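thought: user wants a sequence for this fold. calling inverse folding tool.
action: design(structure=
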């Protein structure tokens, strides 16, 4: 293992762009830490594990570095009996093992090559999302790669799971959804060639039980999907690769405001031709909060990416594409409704005031009506989350918020953790990492989900910075094959 590089602002020098320096710089150690200093009290009725995936390049990149690049590393906080154990481990992907054997980075990043390039191979890093399924954590990659099965307690990589995949691209995108009532995992794959997308279901035993091609009008760069009890909601976004750049093996994206955003509602085990598409106002969409059925309607609550505007009020396509590519977020909580009987659509902004993204919620409500989401306030200038906010997904009301200091704090994606004997949707805690740049302190924070405005009930201090990353989840003991008790 290379030397300890914590608090070094540019461990790989300054030639790879700003997205790998300062607080974005990776860390070099894997640790298991317990008996950490605690301010407040870790609740006794909090049992399970918070997992957060993100990029953490182990070796100096080839060329410029993008947030999306870098070996996936999971940070975890495992709670039981009023105590917590923190761990961080790289996911041992095929690419990680190749780099390990070479002693250097042998892949190219997303700014320097394209997926499936033979000359400049990209690393399938599984660094984007993590979710509990069939007793283990599943790590996935936003460009659709091989899912990796990780032990949620030890964080050791159990195996790659190529048997989950079928179809043209044989990939699994980030943002797979797990229906915790049935154990089904729903996923999508996307690729530049026709038909451009596919959709699959892996059952609770880890068997691919359904897979169908989904025809799109062209190459698309969708990011998320929704599920309800009976349907899945697939996205067709007006964002795609610049064709000339793609042919030349370069990464450049376009936002086309002449196209609507479309959502395709397909029965969970539906055939390709059973999908029904619904059109909405042009925008990009990174993240879905939750979706459900109400009578004849399918409802999806999401963070709508607000296209940048020119002085005359028209959409600035170039600036929007650039903002999407660099993860400069300007998003609002938004409600989409699709009537399966009449074909009618309705969309409305739930809250115009707050730029919120990276939503967590009580994932036992996945696919059924839920009231609460826990999001981060977004610094629109860069990938930095300045505070925690609880929002009502039915009314759009901002119910509570907290920040240790919006100018100095870097939060992670929050996730809801139910109490051991929870009696209501928000009867539990919210878990989040917070790096405070003013005093150079890394904390793991636990909030009472019904009283976020009072601040953390427990602040656990970690000796090392947790670099900004992407997505998180919560797994209850009953969902964990290797839970120690
Ligand atoms: Fe994402």
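)
observation: tool returned 485 residues.
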């Amino acid at each position: 293992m290379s030397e300890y590089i914590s608090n070094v602002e540019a461990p790989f020098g300054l030639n790879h762009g700003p997205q790998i320096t300062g607080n974005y710089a990776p860390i070099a150690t894997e640790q298991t830490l317990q008996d950490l200093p605690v301010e407040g009290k870790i609740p006794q009725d909090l049992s399970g594990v918070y997992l957060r995936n993100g990029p953490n390049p182990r070796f100096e990149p080839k060329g410029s570095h993008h947030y999306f690049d870098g070996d996936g590393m999971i940070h975890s906080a495992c709670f039981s009996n009023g105590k917590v154990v923190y761990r961080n481990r790289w996911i041992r992907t095929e690419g990680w093992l190749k780099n390990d054997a070479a002693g250097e980075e042998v892949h190219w990043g997303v700014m320097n090559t394209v997926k499936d390039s033979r000359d400049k191979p990209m690393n399938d890093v599984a660094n984007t999302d993590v979710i509990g399924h069939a007793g283990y954590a599943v790590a996935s990659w936003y460009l659709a790669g091989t899912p990796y099965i990780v032990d949620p307690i030890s964080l050791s990589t159990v195996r790659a799971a190529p048997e989950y995949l079928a179809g043209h691209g044989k990939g699994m995108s980030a943002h797979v959804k797990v229906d915790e009532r049935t154990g089904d995992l729903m996923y999508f794959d996307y690729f530049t060639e026709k038909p451009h997308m596919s959709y699959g279901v892996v059952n609770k035993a880890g068997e691919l039980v359904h897979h169908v091609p989904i025809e799109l009008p062209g190459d698309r760069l969708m990011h998320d999907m929704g599920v309800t009890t009976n349907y899945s909601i697939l996205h067709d976004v007006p964002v795609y690769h610049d064709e000339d750049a793609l042919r030349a093996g370069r990464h450049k994206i376009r936002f086309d405001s002449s196209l609507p955003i479309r959502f395709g509602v397909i029965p969970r085990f539906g055939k390709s031709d059973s999908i029904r598409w619904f059109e909405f106002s042009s925008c990009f969409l990174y993240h879905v909060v939750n979706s459900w059925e109400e009578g004849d309607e399918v409802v999806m609550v999401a963070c709508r990416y607000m296209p940048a505007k020119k002085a005359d009020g028209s959409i600035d396509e170039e600036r929007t594409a650039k903002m999407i590519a660099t993860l400069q977020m300007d998003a609002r909580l938004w409600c989409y409704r699709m009537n399966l009987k009449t074909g009618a659509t309705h969309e409305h902004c739930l809250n115009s005031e707050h730029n919120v993204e990276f939503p967590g919620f009580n994932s036992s409500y996945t696919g059924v009506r839920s009231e609460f989401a826990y999001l981060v306030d977004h610094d629109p200038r860069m990938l930095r989350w300045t505070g925690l906010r609880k929002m009502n997904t039915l009314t759009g009301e901002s119910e509570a918020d907290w920040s240790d200091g919006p100018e100095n704090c870097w939060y992670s994606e929050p996730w809801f953790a139910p109490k051991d004997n929870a009696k209501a949707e928000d009867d539990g805690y919210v878990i989040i990492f917070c790096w405070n740049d003013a005093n150079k302190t890394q904390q793991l924070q636990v909030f009472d989900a019904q009283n976020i405005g009072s601040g953390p009930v427990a602040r656990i201090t970690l000796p090392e910075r947790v670099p900004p990353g992407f997505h998180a989840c919560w797994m209850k003991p009953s969902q964990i094959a290797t839970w120690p008790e």
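thought: summarizing for user.
answer: Here is the designed sequence. The CA atoms of residues 51 and 473 lie 5 Å apart.
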